[in-house]
Design a protein that fits this description.
This is TetR/AcrR family transcriptional regulator. Keywords: DNA-binding. InterPro entries: DNA-bd_HTH_TetR-type_CS (IPR023772), Homeodomain-like_sf (IPR009057), HTH-type_TetR-like_transc_reg (IPR050109), HTH_TetR (IPR001647). Pfam families: TetR_N. The chain is an all-alpha fold. It has 2 domains: 47 residues, Homeodomain-like (Arc Repressor Mutant, subunit A); 136 residues, Tetracycline Repressor, domain 2, CATH 1.10.357. Helices cover 76% and strands 0% of the residues. It is built from 10 helices and no strands. α4 crosses α5 and α6 packs across α9. The chain is elongated and about 55 Å long. The N and C termini lie far apart (54 Å).
Length: 190
Amino acid sequence: MDIKDKRQQILDAALMLFNAQGFHGTSTASIAKAAGVATGTLFHHFPNKETLLQTLFLAVKQEFAAAIQAMASPDGPLEQQARRLWLGAIDWALEHPDKQQFFQQFSLSVEIPLALREQAMQEILGFIGAMIAEGQRLGLVAELPLALMLENCHGQYLAATRFFLDHPALGQDHGHREASFRLFWRALAL
């Protein structure tokens, strides 16, 4: 087994245990055991539990961004582009409930430093900010501070996905999916 595999095993085990037991309820020894590696191997890859959590946060955020950005298309009206991204993001959450649960638990947690949350929003999910800025330029989206609008979008996404994770059948219901997008779009539009 190569080093990358062990690192990924540690991240996978951390995801499972952080979701089940929380950050403070999970020890590095329990993560190493669940990953099938020695505790020293865990510390070789991650100097402490905080770094492991932050690395996992960025990795999951990057996976999420790559998945929904692949759905992005500059074709069509901005609202249609936003709908594709929103519904794609909802689908990602339903397809990856463990990773979405992790977002639910840690996206607004004090365990994730503000600078790291901002990095994820500006660098990893920067295409969303660019879409909002384009909407402002076109006069379709309210001229409000971009950073505040991005935080609002994030909060709406967490609320919608929490609802759909709690009610998975409604995550497939066209009416509920469209209603979640309408709520999102109305918060942005003029």
